[in-house]
C-alpha cells in the first residue's frame, strides 16, 4: 500500500476555469507570494554537495518563482532542458495518480457534486489537483 500525503487540496471550481486563474485566486498563491508557507530553506540534495530549494511542481499555466517550478517552453529545447521537462512531468504525474487514487477511494469525487456553496469566507478552488505537487 502506498502512503500519500497531500499538503494542499481545495475544491469547488468547475472545469472551465484555467489552472493559472484558479491558482492566482487561491490562498496557496497568496501564501506563496507572502512567504507564509514556511517552506524550508534550500538544502543539500541527497549524496551531493549541491543545494536546491524546496519547490512546488507546476505546469505551464503557473508563474515561475523561487519555490514554484514549471517546465521550459516547448520550442528549441536542448537535450538537457528536454530531460528536465521529462523529469518534471514524472513528478507532476505523481499528484495526478494520487488524486486518481483519492477519487477511486471516494467514488463520489468522480462526478460533479451539485451542491450550493454555503461558506462564503473560504476560497473554493481546485488548485489544479493535477497541476501542483509539493516536493
What's the quick description here?
GO terms for molecular function: metal ion binding. The chain is mostly helical and 135 residues long.
Shape: globular
Report the major sheet: 3 strands, mixed
User: What amount of the residues lies in strands?
Assistant: 5-15%
Instruction: Kindly give the count of domains.
Output: 1
Count of individual helical segments? 3
Number of strands: 5
Q: Report the end-to-end length measured between terminal Cα atoms.
A: 20 Å
Helix fraction, binned, reads: 25-40%
Derived structural class: mainly alpha
* Oligomer class: single chain
Strand arrangement across the biggest beta sheet = 4-3-5
Which radius of gyration do the C-alpha atoms yield?
16 Å
Q: Look at the structure and give the mean pLDDT.
A: 78
* Unreliable parts: 120-135
Element-by-element helix/strand order: HHEEEEHE
Describe the protein in words.
The chain is mainly α. The chain has one domain. The protein has helices at residues 19-25, 27-33, 79-105; strands spanning 43-44, 51-52, 56-57, 68-69, 133-134. It has a three-stranded mixed β-sheet, covered by helices on one side. It has a two-stranded antiparallel ribbon with strand order 1-2. The chain is globular, with a radius of gyration of 16 Å.
